[in-house]
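User: Please predict the structure of the protein below. I'd like the answer in structure-token form so I can feed it into my own downstream comparison script.

Assistant: Understood. Taking the following sequence of 145 residues as input:
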Amino acid sequence: MRRFQQIFPVVVTLLVFMTVDAMGASPMEQAKNQLETAIYHGKAASGADTVDKMKAHLKHVINCIEGPEGKAFDSSALNPCKGQGNGIIPDLKAVGSEAAKALEHVQESDSIAVSSLEVSDLDKLHSNIDEVINHLEEAKKALGK
């Protein structure tokens, strides 16, 4: 917890700059910024010590992936990607074929994340979250970031 308290101000500052940078950015740049935020929240979910905390961060990841128009978007949960774009999936779709491989990874990540909200076993949930993170990181690599 202490480590989180130490890095939280730095992360918030970074996210503010990423949000400002995303204004007027291309869909590709918006998707890249949102991927960074989603990966951060995925890692926070993986590092959580209870199922409830893991799922709370997982909802943040889903909100970043899907954007406000997404089927599984949860308006009662934080959307840490607000202001960074329209959601990773919509922004990658706007990029087109150049982002096809990244889009596949993000869609797989979304599918795993959404289904994981029904998981109550801590170890299984942790494993699923690690898969979500892996797919998001592969998407990031596919975009050259």
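That's the full token string. Confidence is low (pLDDT under 50) at residues 12-22.
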